[in-house]
Amino acid sequence: MKTRNVYLWMFVFSVVSFINCISSNGIIEGLINSFSSIAEDDECDQPDLCDEMQIMLHLACIRITSPERILLLLTWDSLPAACDKTASVLGHINDTLTDCTPPQTNNLYMRLYKALVFFQGQMCTMAETKSKHMEKYRSCISELRDDLIDCEGPADWFEKRSKTYVCRQFTEIINCDYIRAALLCGLKPARMLRSFAAEVINKALVSKCLVSSTLPHVHNPMSDVGSRVPNNVIVCIYIFLLACMLQYFM
Ligand SMILES: *[C@@H]1O[C@H](CO)[C@@H](O)[C@H](O)[C@H]1NC(C)=O
Prior knowledge:
The protein is mainly alpha-helical. It has 2 domains: 2-44; 52-230, no CATH class. The chain contains 11 helices and no strands. The protein has helices at residues 2-23, 25-44, 52-61, 67-71, 79-98, 108-123, 138-141, 145-150, 163-185, 187-203, 228-249. Helix 3 runs antiparallel to helix 5 and helix 9 (163-185) packs antiparallel against helix 10. The longest helix has 23 residues, at 163-185. It starts with a helix and ends with a helix. Bound molecules: 2-acetamido-2-deoxy-beta-D-glucopyranose (NAG). The site of 2-acetamido-2-deoxy-beta-D-glucopyranose has 5 residues, from helix 5.
């Protein structure tokens, strides 16, 4: 008797749960749908590609339209001001890049962005980088603005396919920067500027160029700004002696 009761109950239970399943199909469907939509949100929906125009516009705020233009930041009246502006532009670009898929690394604006991050790391942080030594010559380097603009390559040279062409322009630019800096500021700051220019510009190129160790010859370079002080002292002594002599003859 008892076992038969158990079987009966089991039968009733399975019928009830079967009916329950059919009638609650909607709920199950709903469950399946919500699971699949979670899956879609989490895995299948890639965030959109970042708008490269946004990056371009931020870079344009500090007039960075080519790799060489990054160097012009060195010629701002005040380096801290140039660094502040750079940090704010990089901050905006970092924000732009957070909720979307960044453009590929060979995208022009991403390359300019990387080169700018490098510039900031070298010139604007507390770290004692080798480019930081240029700070000593900044009052002279900041006079080089027009020269650096003269040295810029032809339009879009950095976007051309021929590596030979790109690297020829690259070498011409850094050598031109070197000569102009040597004439105005001296050979030592000129060497620093050339190698910094090479590093910054190379960061923005798809394929890096070799930096030739042969420096162009410069006629009558300016003596280094750093050594001007002793020169001034000598000039003062001359004037002093001259004054003494004049006094003696009068
Ligand atoms: C922006 O991001 C770069 C690299 O991820 C970082 O080096 C830089 O400090 C950031 N700058 C700002 C201002 O957030």
